[in-house]
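User: I've been trying to design a sequence by hand for this structure and keep getting stuck. Would you show me what you'd pick, starting by listing the structure so we're on the same page?

Assistant: Good idea, let's start from the same input. This is the structure you sent:
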């Protein structure tokens, strides 16, 4: 018997989510981040940890896309996200590989479900607008919430210490950094080079240069964030991945980030989102 249309839709969205996260982590030479040939500023994880984590999340993205088909409030999405985090931590021996991705990409998968239920075409702009419109206020409410079952995360500590809205602000605003920074950089570099990996690297540096990345803030404070953003901006000003010597420059930035224990984990998550959004047009 053929699978119902909703199941096929959710499976398609889930495959795209996992593929996008795989492309992010498989991109070699990212500064300070885990990749196939190095673990950047992260002694507690490597590429294998990310593969185990992705395996554990295979069921989550279709499940949250299917939940979106019911046009849910925020509470059921949050419950799915919390369960997925527990699955991730069980698969990685308690290492945080995909906390941001579970949140960001989960919301976008659910948004695609809402668009499908409304009979609307899926596009990057439409999916981001659904997250803002349907769940933005509830997402922001989490910034001031703390309770016994919601302990202070690094992001919440940084929100209080440095006044940064981090992942919650970005999602509640409809992912402006992914839409207005990551996606244009990715598309322009893809048009110029025809190479998806080069385009992804350019998008990553563009995101690092612009984002209030709470991973950089947590590890390095304001000075660390400013240092990371300036390094990425200088890389772009020198031509980014279109410069003949870009790899040498990227290796130097990676070395500097690792020496300072800096990791642009939020920018990496938004690269995953960018790669997901880039493939949305015509998905439905
Ligand atoms: C809101 C989340 C991301 C927690 O955020 P918080 O900033 O408090 O925690 P933490 O610092 O541990 O993780 C945030 C992660 O977001 C990513 N990130 C950092 N900065 C940014 C940014 N500016 N934009 C986007 N992502 C970012 C990083 O990868 C980071 O690891 C989320 O994990 C959460 O609360 N989950 C509970 C379940 C839930 O609400 N789910 C919603 C539906 S899926
Ligand atoms: N390729 C990647 N390499 C490293 N981190 C990544 C990568 N892609 C995404 N990230 C994000 O970075 C986060 C991990 O960063 P980090 O280890 O700094 O967080 P932490 O465990 O909360 O804090 P810390 O280790 O600084 O005490 C993950 O939640 C993940 O979302």
């Amino acid at each position: 018997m053929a699978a119902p249309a909703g199941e096929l839709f959710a499976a398609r969205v889930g495959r795209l989510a996992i593929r996008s996260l795989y492309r992010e982590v498989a991109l070699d030479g990212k500064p300070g981040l885990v990749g196939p040939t190095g673990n950047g500023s992260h002694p507690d994880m490597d590429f294998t940890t990310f593969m185990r984590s992705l395996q554990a999340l295979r069921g989550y993205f279709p499940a949250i896309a299917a939940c979106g088909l019911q046009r849910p409030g925020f509470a059921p999405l949050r419950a799915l996200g919390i369960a997925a985090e527990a699955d991730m931590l069980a698969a990685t021996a308690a290492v945080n590989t995909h906390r941001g991705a579970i949140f960001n990409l989960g919301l976008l998968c659910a948004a695609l479900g809402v668009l499908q239920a409304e009979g609307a075409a899926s596009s990057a702009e439409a999916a981001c607008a659904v997250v803002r419109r349907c769940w933005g206020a509830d997402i922001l409410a989490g910034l001031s919430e703390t309770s016994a079952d919601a302990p202070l995360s690094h992001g919440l500590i940084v929100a209080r210490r440095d006044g940064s809205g981090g992942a919650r602000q970005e999602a509640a605003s409809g992912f402006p950094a992914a839409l207005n920074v990551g996606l244009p950089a990715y598309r322009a570099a893809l048009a110029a080079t025809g190479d998806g990996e080069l385009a992804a690297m350019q998008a990553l540096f563009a995101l690092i240069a612009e984002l209030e990345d709470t991973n950089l803030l947590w590890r390095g404070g304001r000075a660390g964030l400013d240092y990371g953003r300036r390094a990425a901006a200088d890389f772009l000003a020198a031509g980014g991945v279109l410069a003949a010597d870009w790899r040498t420059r990227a290796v130097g930035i990676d070395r500097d980030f690792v020496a300072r224990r800096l990791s642009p984990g939020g920018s990496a998550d938004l690269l995953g989102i960018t790669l997901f959004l880039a493939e949305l047009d015509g998905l439905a």
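That's my pick for every position. To get oriented when you compare it with your attempt: The two ends are 22 Å apart (CA to CA). The chain has one domain: 5-278.
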